[in-house]
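Risk register update: the risk of archive-format incompatibility is retired. Evidence:
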Amino acid sequence: MMLSNQLDGELMRVRVAMIFVVLAFLFLAATLWRTQVYSSSEYKDSLHKQSLRRVRLPGARGSIFDRNGVCLAGNRPSYCIAIYVEELRQAGKLANTIDAVEHVIDGLARDLNLQRTATRKEIESHVNKRRPLPFIAWRDVDHAVLARFAESAVTLPGVDIYVESIRSYPFGGLGAHVLGYLGRLDPDKNEEEEDDQYHFYVPEMEGNFGMEKVCNSTLAGMPGGRLLCVDASGFKHNETSERAPVAGSDVTLTIDFRIQRLLEEALGDNRAAGVVLDPRNGEVLALASSPAFNPNSFSTGIQSDDWGELNTDTNRPMINRAITGMYPPGSTFKPLVAIAAIDGTNATENMSFSCPGVFRLGETSFHCWQKRGHGWLAMRKAIEQSCNCYFCQLGLLCGPNAERIQQTARAAGMGRVSGIELVPEAAGLVPTPAWKRRAMKDEWRQGDTCNMSIGQGALLVTPLQMAVMVSAIANGGTVFRPRLVMRRSAKPEVANQTRWSQRAMRVVRGGMNDVVQSTEGTGKRAAVPGVALAAKTGTAEYGPKDERKKHTWMIAFAPFESPRYAAAIVVEDGISGGITVAPKMGALMKGIFTIEGLIKPEEATN
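Archived output:
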């Protein structure tokens, strides 16, 4: 009986175990069936996603045109020699593939007579991080190299021509400080920092300076994308286009290419700057800084040595002197002093002061450029002759702290940025008693007023500010915000409507006319036959007393009765405004009115 019970118990345990085995088998079969039937699409989608890589493609950059439709910055095809890593893939470690890529590049360098520029480190980085994309071994090769490549490339696997669009500046360095330049974005940085919308970024350029930077969002357009299919090791095996990029929009500037070229020719190789405005609306017709640079050097990515050379050049070609250079204006400031005196005191056109060649204020002496003195002279003649002694005495009438002069200078746009689209822009400095106490821990004295009255001392301006100021004199007192982007429907933006009197305008404009048209005027070298040009010269000393140097100026507008052009030019370390700058201003204006047809070409060459 006990044996029978034991057998029954064993049989029961066997049956239970068999039931568990059958149930487990049924569960496994059901799971496998569900996976194959219901979940196969999910696994396929997951596998598909893991084998796809999305590449960001930059849009074609918009062009920059001058006001007449001349292309100042556009795009051109650049032919590159590219290595397609997947075609050189080697078994084993990635180092084997890297060796193969390097071997092909060495062979190309030898066959094409090219200097190898790609380092092993760059190849390693590409194979490790961006292997589905072509590796650019040489950028922007010339047609001779392309011809040699066509003959030899058939023997080399994994090599082909890759075409990319690069920025092109047809006139080289012309307008460089207006147009600016591009810089290449680091694709590795983008891939690390951006969201997961894209796995890879095709290298693109963005504006780093000038209008290329200011208008970058307009010019850059919208990116597109491309899908790459890769294998388990990340090597590409095919690609499909997903979305085409959208080209950027074009930008039209107020610049007139012809006037820009004339201005740059006038500046020459000097350390200098100049601006030409339309005094009727503030449009910038030309803006230049010398020496300049060639923005084409940046289009394929400037080499570090070249960048270092540009930035260590003592002539500072990367500085836009027209908007960031701050200089004492010298005698070009005197028209504002005359306005301040006429509108703020009882001074009149006929007010006369004596010039013995030096004006003494206590122990301080202010010398006139005419050492023998001008004798007695009235205001208009003092402007024509640029008499320091006269303007020292006139300036002292404008308040004990020169407050009327300071107010007039600020009304003309000095001491603050103009608001032009270009950045950075310097504000300059209109010194006040409060500024002197803060900066120099000293009180304002009459000598400070005399210095300001002749455009010296702590007073600092930019060439653009001087162009804005002379534009306001030309148009009767309206200070426009200078603008570079042409907007056909936009109205001119008035930065300030001064309250300069017609009486003051008549005296100042008349004196500036005499500066050029009189045989005794300091700016007679700027005279252009057939053109009524009004101007003011300036010579500002700077530096230690035993090493004095001069910044030389001229501001001008023309034609006198109905001004269409207003300009300012500064030349560092010149002789005087009348000797150094006046001929340059004359050449500029002669060229402008030749373009207009007011001067015949044969007359312009005389």
